[in-house]
Amino acid sequence: MMIRYVFRNRFFSHLYLLFSITACLAAKSLEKPKSKSLALLDEVIGELSPYHMVTADYKDGKILFKSDKDYKEAVSVGFFRIPIPKKIDAELLTKFAENIHPYAKEHKIGKLNVAEGFLESENNQTDRLTFERSNWAPYYPKNICEMGERLTKIATDVLLSIFEKIGIPKKDYAKASSGCSKNQGSPYLLFNCYNRDKSHCPFGVVPHADWSFVTLLLAWQAGLQAKIDGVYRPLVLEKGYLTINFGTPLERLTQYTKNPVKASWHRVKRQKKSDRLRTSTACFLDPNLLGNVHIYKKGKLISSMPTLDFFAQESNKIYKGQ
Ligand SMILES: [Fe+2]
Fold it and tell me: How far is the CA of 108 from the centre of ligand 1 (A)?
């Protein structure tokens, strides 16, 4: 979910827009299917064996895996799930996402357009509304802002639970999380509504890895696929569960540890006109955009890099197809 805007100031807004456009163009050129037959693509994708994510519990602000084996699988695949916590109103978020639609540009929160976080992608079937936290209050209704804060807290708890598993000292949490442990990260709250009329798109969402430490995803209509052992497999989504995946800043941070965390590449299958309307809500726990990202090696945080430079590097990787 690369396409996001930073409204904190005009400079970052334009810089991020540049990254987003580069990423989209790259994805478009790289991911165009060799076969012109989208029907054949659908057929091939449909044959892959589904993957059942590891289920963990979330209790007292901590993620609890049922076994060490489950933890290792979750970080090596890059996806796992937890039951949706009671404080998250999934129905509210889903209904809100259903309104992110080109036919609903006169939304109750105002006229929707690119400058106000609304994006109608040419490469993805999704119509999306997304804001960084500093812009939630001016644009999202109060109850949606509240959900954003609660999701951010859960994402932070996931990140710190991983830190604990890795053995990062607590004194280094703020630096390692680029401020997230002190609620000073740059979380985004994104709503996707899939436009089934965009039948020319090869994918619902093109393949990508997230730029967040941790992503929380509320979606249960089929279509999400993750690259596991080199092959894209459909993830089994069920109502009542929150899907969690890891992004590139966490992969970078943990690459030299015993159990590196994978930023799994994933995509969403093209939605056909006959499919049920697919929506999703995502909360991205991004590093502080004005801060730095790090690598943890042999008990020390090394290789500090400005977050925005790191994002530029990630954009280049997509462009080169790495
Ligand atoms: Fe994503």
Answer: 27
